[in-house]
Amino acid sequence: MVYGSHSAGVAPEDPVEEINIDFVREQILEKKSEQDPFAQINVNNFRKNAPVHKRYEQLRKQYRGMDGAEAKFIDPEQMYGYTLFDVVEPPYNLLALGQLYDESAILHAVVDSRVMNTVGLGFSWEPTLKAKKQIERSSRSMDSADRTRTAHQKEQDRLNESFDEFNEEETFIETLIRIWLDVLTLGNGYMEIGRTTTGKIGYVGHVPGTLVRVRRDRDGFVQTANQSGTMKNSVFFRNFQDKETKDPINGDPNPNEMIHFKLYTPNNNYYGIPPSVSALHAIMGDKFAKEFNIDYFENKAIPRYAIILKGVKLSEKSKRELIQYFRNEVKGKNHGTLVVPLPSTVGSNSQADIKFEKLEADIQDGSFDKYRRANRDEIVTSYRVPPTKVGILDNANLAVSRDADKTFKSQVVGPDQAIAEKKINRLVREFTDLFKLKLVQLDVIDEDLKSRIHDRYARIGAMNINEIRQVIGLQPAEGGDKPLPYPVRSGYQNGEVWPDIETATTNTRGGQPGNDNAGIPPKSGQDNGTNVSSADATGTNAERGQQQDSGDNPDTTGGNQ
Predict the structure, then answer these.
(1) Whole-number CA gyration radius for the chain
(2) Which residues contact 183 (CB under 8 A, 6 or more apart)?
(3) Domain for residue 409, yes or no?
(4) What angle do CA 294, 295, 299 make, to 5 degrees?
(5) Domain carrying residue 371
(6) Is there a single domain that holds both residue 139 and residue 160?
(7) Cα(133)–Cα(139) distance, rounded to whole angstroms?
(8) Predicted pLDDT at 403
(9) Residue 278's pLDDT band (boundaries 50, 70, 90)?
(10) Is the residue at 38 inside a domain?
(11) Structure pTM?
């Protein structure tokens, strides 16, 4: 007779919780979850004159008969929020996807890394083509250039102030971080835009992606808030800059607007899908392996045992007493003497035998270590994040890390930033046509190399001083809108006013005033006539050839003697 036992002392009749990976995966794939705020709708929570009641009545018409007779049963599909609000179901359980971010340390790290490197480094204002043309035209006059520079600086200050006042509770960067975290975790992120009574943008905020659904006709979005099992609030949002679509839920004459950020997937036209779906088994496998190790240490690293009884039959009471002993006396104690109270029936039988057999050969040290490493690498790969960005330093070196950072910037973060900037600049264009928002890029070049690059650009005229100062975050300098005269003198780099181009190039040799060694470049001796060859001194080449034939060559006469 064999009874399985663990140091935790789980009795055979006790229910054993089994880990079902397929069930967890099905939970994420399941669309109709009980926790889904759109799963059940109580129409009575809305105003009687709300448009949603009209939608409900339209659905009820098919159950009406003659002379006012109608069915009294409640169709679950009519109370289903996706039908009532005419919104599309997401391809995955968004609440379950959000929980993965909280439960997986490596997923948490890779998502945070991509979020911070995409939208968390800040932003700057980049001049548009119109602003660049204004700067180019004004650079012909010092006064005009100063006025243009001052006007542009005031415009940037106004933009900074407006974007800082969009939300009293959070900065604009914080709003972008929350939105992009939803994008990478759920595949979808939403930005809410509210307007003032005059129609100007006055509020910009984040709406949790788990609560928003896309309308089937693509004419807006619906957000819900589930409280105590009933739908207390459901809000309709227009598409950004849509001023005509009516609120089909509450009849709000001025609903807020929304911008949808998503990770494209060819399998769904309404929602995006996060990379975590492709690494779902790795995420869940890492979670269960971690829980196994925790359970192992909770039992003080005592392996599983089998209690083998021969020649005796235990009563149910004896079984419970034996198992309870392991549960109460063994679990939770690091050291001590193990005294097992044997039932009285064992001692009365000379043929009885009891043996404890260890089911695990040795005490395990860090179970599933290689398996967890493989899961970790799969999760990191699915999000295309360099391992060093999340603190993984296995076999890392400077050259490999630098190349990985460059690839990460150009192939992952860069495209994400371009997508985000495209949508955000739709807001900016309602404030100005001189600047556009530019997210700060991941810096993979050290400061010394960047300074040399800027110096080279300034010398060849690719950038002027103020353009360089704008890149490094400094205020424009007086006269810095003009290209530098060639070559650059160190005196002008110490705060002196840059000379006019006409004055700087009056030197006949192309240099700055007082620079006698400058040339653009200096001509060679043969070009300027200062270096006279022997042929020029003794005659033409034909005359020299005749002299050589007659033996009268002055270059060789006497040389052979």
Answers:
(1) 39
(2) 189, 209, 261, 262, 263, 272, 274
(3) yes
(4) 115
(5) 104-165+174-187+274-290+366-441
(6) yes
(7) 10
(8) 87
(9) very high
(10) no
(11) 0.69
Which DSSP string do the residues of 432-476 spell out, in sequence order?
Answer: -SSEEEEEPPP--S-HHHHHHHHHHHHHHTSS-HHHHHHHTT-PP
Number of structural domains (the chain) is 2
Residues 383 and 425 grouped into a single domain = yes
Which pLDDT score is estimated for 55? 59
Token representation of residue 407: 């690839």
Residue 146: which of 506, 497, 503, 463 has the closest Cα? 497
Buried/exposed 284-306: b ≥16 CB within 10 Å, e otherwise: bbbbebbeebeebeebeebebbe
Position 346 confidence tier, pLDDT thresholds 50, 70, 90: low
Same domain, yes or no: 153 and 135? yes
Residues 152-160, mean pLDDT to the nearest whole number: 93
- Identify whether residues 279 and 395 lie together within a single domain: yes
- Which amino acid is located at 549 in the chain? D
Question: Of all helices (H) and strands (E), which one includes residue 114?
Answer: helix 105-119
Structure tokens at 88: 């599309």
Are residues 424 and 462 part of one domain? no
pLDDT tens digit sequence for 445-473: 778 888 888 888 888 888 888 888 878 87
Q: What does the block give as tokens for 165? A: 């006042």
